[in-house]
Records
---
Amino acid sequence: MRIASRFRGLLAGFAVLAASAGLAAAQDYPTRPITMIVPFAAGGPTDVIARIVSENMSKTLGQTIVIENVVGAGGTTGATRAMRAAPDGYTIIMGHMGTHAASVALYPNLAYKPDADFEPIGLVAGTPILILAKKDFPAKDLKEFVAYVKANADKLNLAHAGVGSVSFTTCLLLNSLLNVKPTSIPYQGTGPSMNALVAGQVDYMCDQIVNAVPQIKGGTIKAYAIGTAERNPSPPDVPTTKEAGLPEFQASAWNALFAPKGTPKPVLDKLSAALDKALNDEGVRKRLLDLGSDIPGPDRRGQAALASLVKSEIAKWSPIIKASGAAN
Ligand code: ASP
């Protein structure tokens, strides 16, 4: 009896000790490098955005942030890895509209629930989607593009970053509007698919603006339209889909940081604050804006705003995906 109560006392002592050690660890955080998983290949928009903000965040946090490209299954392989990582703030993920919204409808057996198995850190950038084609695609504007794709879909190759990715999902919307099914060529990110587009190995794709701007400026691809209500100041000559004659194609993506569920609140708060600081930094802002992305204002920043964005984006994209016939 006495031994049992002493044992209970000991256990309680351990629990207090463990809790205060956890708190101390959270207060000291970070004491070693942080891994930021990028669920796509290097050189694509998610990778570029991750590198821009992590550089600044690592200065604030006083630790290196190592980018790890964990590719596969439209970004869901990297997101699954992040979901299963220890929830200690040393593994976080640069997710996006695909990994944390569209994938829900595209993968009935998805290993994670974007809105339940992650702790939101904050929205990083909004990224309008553009309809892009190889340089010698035989159409001078979006109307001609639509007519050509409709007439020749069986001969055309569409590049994307895998089922579940932004490029897959947004071109799914485009193809269902045009009622076409071109040959679909998956890559491990839109970095490599952009290389294929520039080389003329594939015909068209839909992608986040960050990846498109350098190529549009260099004249290496064609950009037919941007899927937002307004033109973007970075490629100012690209018309909106409304101006160009396909107003139903409204598509804008985003990138955001998440941690595994159970990451302590003080750790999350440090990460959110470091992200916030990065998004206020002139150098970071310039780099993101020059690439056409939209930097969230104060009301769209932080953990709560990202939690509701994830829910509303799942609700928005799921019916679009189901209507396209692509959902399993
Ligand atoms: N933009 C890509 C996508 O289609 C992924 C990437 O960032 O490479 O989801």
---
Amino acid sequence: MSGIARTQATGGAMIEALITWSSSIDDDAAFVREDLLGSAAHATMLGKTGIIPVEAARSLRGALLALDASAGATVPMTGEEDVHMAVEALLTRTVGPDVAGRLHTARSRNDQVALDLRLFARDRAATMLRATTALGLAMVERAEAETATLLAAYTHRQRAQPISAAFLLCAWTAQLTRAAETMAFALGRCNELALGAGACSGSSLPIDRTLTARLLGFPRITHNALDTVGDRDFALDLTWASARVMLALGKMSTDLVDFSTSEFAIVRLDGSIAAGSSMMPQKKNPDVFELVRGKSAHAVANVTHLLMLVKGLASGYNRDQQEDRRALLSSPPLVLGALDAVARSLPHVHFDRARGLASVADGFTQATDLAEALVQRGVPFREAYKAVGALVRQAVDAGTPLRALTLEQARAAHAGFDAEALAVLDPARAVAAKESLGGTGPASIARQIAALRSELTALAARAEAVPSLDQIARAIAQETL
Ligand code: ARG
């Protein structure tokens, strides 16, 4: 422990066990590069504004960028309270105390950690946004190949109405696209320069936050120093967006788990994505999708963790905030792992067209379409609904499919029926007729696919606008000083 952050006023040395217990160093290892680059940008700004001598700024920048080029691997992360102290202690040894002692000018660890975490969260938000939109685009492409695959849509997990598999894929993609939109929002919340807030009220020195923001690729600068050091909303938003992606993948997973059972049997999983049983030789289990659903628990817990952490905190920095780390660090790998697993698995998920068709062939799922055919012939909906209900009852009692209905039987239930009205009992006809906006008809699906594609492409572009850490390092190195 170098004792950098201690003075005579602090008092004698802190009990070693308490330093170890209160240290964040193990978790901080995840953002050493962010810390080094943030410091390199800060040193450059201090030199350019004349707050510290240019030679000192150059040597600080050079030492920090050299450490960054080794991906921070050479920063000894032991014996210090956090990554910020570890870097300053190392610089003290390498460039000497006179130069190293100038780096923390107009800066506090409070705005430094706020910067590091935003840089980390922004980078991961961009990575998650790229992966989420890429999967969404792969799903709509798959939808295009499944327009002729019919199956039942479910409400209350009971067969409801006939749809196409393309429509189901678009439904999954719509939810995933909203999650991507939430991720883009979280990215925006991370995309503000926090450095320059100081401990809690700014600096009396002529710092240039605009310059630091430019070097680090931040389009905006936080507005209020006191708010900035206590703000973890960006972390909350990132975990929330992460949970949203996991929940979207979770719903799709539940459908696939169900549909691949021998009871539904609408979907078949290749052996390459199915797991076996250690005891039952016949088993072919959908473990990948169960795990995607299961892992969403951790992602949701991370949101709750951060909500509990910030609830009741006073304005300004509070050391409690150090406990943000696990939630922030663990959400991105959960999301990226699940997105990768689903992206790899999707090509090995096959819709069984014959079974899908069989699930709607008996005609009962077309009961609403039959009632709507009467409505088209001028019958009030409730009257049509009751007439069809009676026909369904007759068919169930007779043990026959609704499709076996004769015109004579239909006309006995309601005089409005004609031969053309009964044609909707063909599931393909029923699906083709649902051309209302958002419906399962083919023209509607084509519109949905086009809209999802353009939304996903626009969202992916938001991720591309974020500079990588390597690009940031180059920008700092190239700044004239
Ligand atoms: N390790 C701390 C954290 O991660 C850094 C900020 C500490 N600030 C302080 N004044 N003790 O939150």
